[in-house]
């Protein structure tokens, strides 16, 4: 296949044998052009083959842009560094959902609308009591978010823009309450109701860490840290869980059920589960002098071990979120007076060694956001099993924003990938008595 006219080409020519077809080339505002193969099968009788979607744009989107080679992440055009430094999480939510930063009045109105939806139906607490206390909080979150669809099914007409926005706001408002309930349940403490005069992050910390018998005072530095962690995780283009939400939603399914599908996908260690896995790995390494042994294992093709928190499908440079995360980690440890965290020492040294090692340099493997987030979240008081839950909480706005964008796309159709079939060809059924 040749692009007929270099990078400014409007079409590409596909030649198979002595037949040729022109394929349109579409331009985005930034990023690589895409070859439109939408009519390829109809015209040629051929599919494309791209397991893992490494070269496939599955949709058009205006929400998030990543330049993996340069280490750039933009939400609606704004660099992540600027949003994380100056704004708050609900401002980022507004930006992702509406496409523009809010004015002061729009922000106040949005905060109010989110705040008004923070409580969950009292009946929800009954669901929690059906789980074993030692259930992984992610399993509880998948189930409870899925269960929201039972409360808002008849009232959610996804063809009505206003109802789509209400569902989006409900999702953003209720996910911290459910995440905190999952945590409280796992440690046998009573659920804490949201307190609406607190900001989003402070409210979440209070729902997780306060108990009815004591006053709880939110530490503003820690609450700012958690708010920044939410901003860093809010959206990340067409990653596995977002694509899951889009695919689930493409059938017209209930949005709460679609978000539950995204949470299920996020759970895996190659995706959102990596922060939990990274912290476990640092614990397993145990001391700085054992790092070379683990680096050796990570490079050994016969050993399934990988350096968790390293590498990324898109970033072939430093993950911009990892830099902010590293700073936040130092701030949190400083505020809590943790002078010496042996895991932080291991992380810093591991990063230093890996960034000089030919194997990692050649493959452009850099620390990703999960490398330092585990240490930070642990210092904030969260057990490892809650790490992915916090990721899910923050990513909910990205998922719902991408779901909304998909539903609002006039060209939207049900997602239906094809396959390269390599199984048996048609053969006749053999009755069981005649099988050998
Ligand atoms: N440790 C050691 N080797 C690695 C690692 C790693 N963490 N990551 C990739 N490689 C090697 C891999 O073995 C392969 O080597 P070779 O070319 O010799 O076969 C090469 O680098 C390319 O790897 P890949 O598996 O083809 O890359 P991918 O784009 O499919 O995978 C990844 C991306 C994130 C799944 C992978 O880097 C990984 O498993 N990292 C550890 C898990 C992790 O930290 N995940 C969090 C991602 S960031 C949070 C999020 O967005 O969800």
TrEMBL record:
Catalytic activity, reaction form: oxaloacetate + acetyl-CoA + H2O = citrate + CoA + H(+)
Pfam families according to UniProt: Citrate_synt
Protein name: Citrate synthase
NCBIfam families linked: cit_synth_I, PRK05614.1
Keyword list, A-Z: Acyltransferase, Ligase, Transferase, Tricarboxylic acid cycle
Span of the signal peptide: none
Annotated metabolic or biological route of this protein: Carbohydrate metabolism; tricarboxylic acid cycle; isocitrate from oxaloacetate: step 1/2
Keyword Hydrolase attributed: no
GO molecular function, one term: ligase activity
Family, similarity comment: Belongs to the citrate synthase family.
Superkingdom as given in the UniProt entry: Bacteria
Entry-linked InterPro entries: Citrate_synth-like_lrg_a-sub (IPR016142), Citrate_synth-like_sm_a-sub (IPR016143), Citrate_synthase (IPR002020), Citrate_synthase_AS (IPR019810), Citrate_synthase_bac-typ (IPR024176), Citrate_synthase_sf (IPR036969), Citrate_synthase_typ-I (IPR010953)
């Amino acid at each position: 296949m040749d692009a007929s006219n270099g990078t400014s080409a409007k079409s590409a020519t596909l030649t198979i044998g002595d037949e040729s077809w022109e394929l349109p080339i579409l331009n985005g505002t930034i990023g690589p052009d895409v070859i439109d193969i939408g009519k390829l099968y109809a015209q040629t009788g051929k599919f494309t083959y791209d397991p893992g979607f490494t070269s496939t744009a599955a949709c058009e989107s205006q929400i998030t842009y990543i330049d993996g080679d340069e280490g750039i992440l933009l939400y609606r055009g704004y660099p992540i560094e600027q949003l994380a430094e100056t704004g708050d999480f609900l401002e980022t939510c507004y930006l992702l959902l509406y496409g523009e930063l809010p004015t002061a009045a729009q922000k106040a109105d949005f905060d109010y609308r989110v705040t008004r939806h923070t409580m969950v139906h009292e009946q929800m607490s009954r669901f929690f009591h059906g789980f074993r206390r030692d259930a992984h909080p992610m399993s509880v979150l998948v189930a409870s978010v899925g269960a929201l669809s039972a409360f808002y099914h008849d009232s959610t007409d996804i063809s009505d823009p206003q109802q789509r926005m209400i569902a989006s706001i409900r999702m953003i408002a209720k996910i911290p309450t459910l995440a905190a309930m999952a945590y409280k349940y796992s440690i046998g403490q009573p659920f804490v109701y949201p307190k609406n005069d607190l900001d989003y992050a402070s409210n979440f910390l209070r729902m997780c860490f306060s108990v009815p018998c004591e006053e709880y005072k939110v530490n503003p530095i820690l609450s700012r840290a958690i708010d920044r962690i939410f901003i860093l995780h809010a959206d990340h283009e067409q990653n596995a869980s977002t694509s899951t939400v889009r695919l689930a939603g493409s059938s017209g399914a209930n949005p709460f059920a679609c978000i539950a599908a995204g949470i299920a996908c996020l759970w895996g260690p190659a995706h959102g589960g990596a922060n939990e896995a990274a912290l476990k790995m640092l614990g397993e390494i145990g001391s700085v002098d054992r790092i070379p042994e683990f680096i050796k294992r990570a490079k050994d093709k016969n050993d399934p071990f990988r350096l968790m928190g390293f590498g990324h499908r898109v970033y072939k440079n430093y993950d911009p979120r990892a830099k902010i995360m590293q700073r936040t980690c130092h701030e949190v440890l400083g505020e809590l007076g943790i002078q010496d965290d042996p895991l932080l020492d291991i992380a810093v040294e591991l990063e230093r060694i890996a960034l000089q090692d030919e194997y990692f340099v050649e493959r452009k493997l850099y620390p990703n956001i999960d490398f330092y987030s585990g240490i930070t979240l642990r210092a904030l008081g969260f057990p490892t099993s809650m790490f992915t839950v916090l990721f899910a909480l923050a990513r909910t706005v990205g998922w719902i924003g991408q779901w909304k964008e998909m539903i609002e796309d006039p060209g939207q159709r049900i997602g239906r990938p094809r396959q390269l079939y390599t199984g048996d060809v048609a053969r006749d059924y053999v009755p069981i008595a005649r099988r050998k």
